[in-house]
Amino acid sequence: MMIDLPLIWAFLIAAAILIYVILDGFDLGIGILFPFLDHADDRDTAVNTVAPVWDGNETWLVLGGGGLFATFPLAYSVLMPALYVPVLLMLLGLIFRGVAFEFRWRDEGHRKYWDFGFVAGSYLATFCQGIALGAFVQGVEVTGRAYTGGWWDWLTPFSLLTGVALVVGYALLGATWLVMKTEGRLCDKAIRYARVSGVGILLFIGIISAATLSLDPHFMDAWFGAPALYYTGIVPLAVLAAALWLWRALGRAADYKPFLAAITLFVLCFIGLGIGLFPYMVPMQVTIWQAAAPDDSLQFLLIGTAVLLPIILGYTAYAYYIFRGKIKAGEGYH
Questions:
Q1: Are 64 and 305 spatial neighbours (Cβ–Cβ below 8 Å)?
Q2: Strands 142-143, 280-282: parallel, antiparallel or unpaired by DSSP?
Q3: Cα separation of the two ends of the chain
Q4: Which of 43, 68, 121, 242 has its CA 20 to 30 A from that of 88?
């Protein structure tokens, strides 16, 4: 029996990216919501909810990016030149956000400046991630085995739209995380912000889905061609069900259910993206199998991943278990 190693690795890379988006998404969402928390105690409490886990969340970004380089070198060599600017700006945002996160506790005399850095880094990183996603989906110009597009091809109305959409989506993750982790005034605010961002992300899902279908005939065939239509129709119905679940959970002030519902929306959007892009690693240019490294390399890397991945999952789960529960004002880990 032949094992399709490129396909296995494509799913592993996709899973790592999805886990990163969810885990780092809610702590970037805290930074996005930060300007709307008008009490210093609320700001400190919000930051303390992610203090034990935020840096570990970025492990998955390293795994996804490093895995892409190792297992799909052709895709990496094509996509990176096309996305240099948004990727570099994203990394700068993440670095600045991380520095500001730590310094705001130790340099209280300049806390307002570090808070600004925390907010600016969160918005910059999120917006650039969304732009990179949009530029990737709309496709890049490839000749032979190399990127031949321009320096600014990533900057389009579609990529700007996806950038704004991801800011709203991360705000939803951040707000529902605060609903789960806080109480009192801050929790009430988080519920209001979750409702607003929830409505916003549903609008963006609809707009971006329609815009994506117009980018290339492949997207239309993947969603509405036979026999795909018989199972792709489940996804928008599931999105509506998840949105209803989110709204009802927020109405009942359930602690963890709004966060799970928001995660479900992200997972469903990711599935929808996968349906539209499959089987391409570089949209409409390079397939998974064309972009993959030799099977011997993929097999060797898979053995190492089979050892390391359970360890990463284990310590991540353990960290979230240890720091479970509500965070009260005045409590924290710094």
A1: no
A2: unpaired
A3: 53
A4: 43
The neighbouring-strand residues paired with 194 are none
State whether residue 195 is helix, strand or coil: helix
Give Cα 218 to chain centroid, integer Å: 24
- Taking alpha carbons only, the member of 187, 145, 178, 118 closest to residue 282 is 145
Q: CA–CA separation, 20 vs 228, rounded Å?
A: 28
Cβ(170)–Cβ(28) below 8 Å: yes
Alpha-carbon span 140 to 281, nearest angstrom = 11
CA distance linking residue 90 with residue 94, whole number of Å: 6
CA distance 261 to 250: 10
Give the three-class secondary structure for 150: coil
d(CA 143, CA 17): 27
Q: Are 186 and 42 in contact (CB under 8 A)?
A: yes
Phi-psi region of 141 (alpha: psi -120 to 50; beta: other; left: phi over 0): beta
Q: Tell me the three state secondary structure of residue 282.
A: strand
Give residue-wise pLDDT tens across range 21-30: 999 899 899 9
User: What is the DSSP secondary structure assignment for residue 206, as one 8-state letter?
Assistant: H
Q: What's the pTM value of the predicted model, to 2 decimals?
A: 0.93
At 28-87, the pLDDT tens digits run 999 999 999 888 888 888 888 888 887 778 788 888 888 888 899 999 989 999 999 999
* pLDDT tens-digit map of 252-265: 767 889 999 999 99
- What's the token pair of residue 238? 């599931």
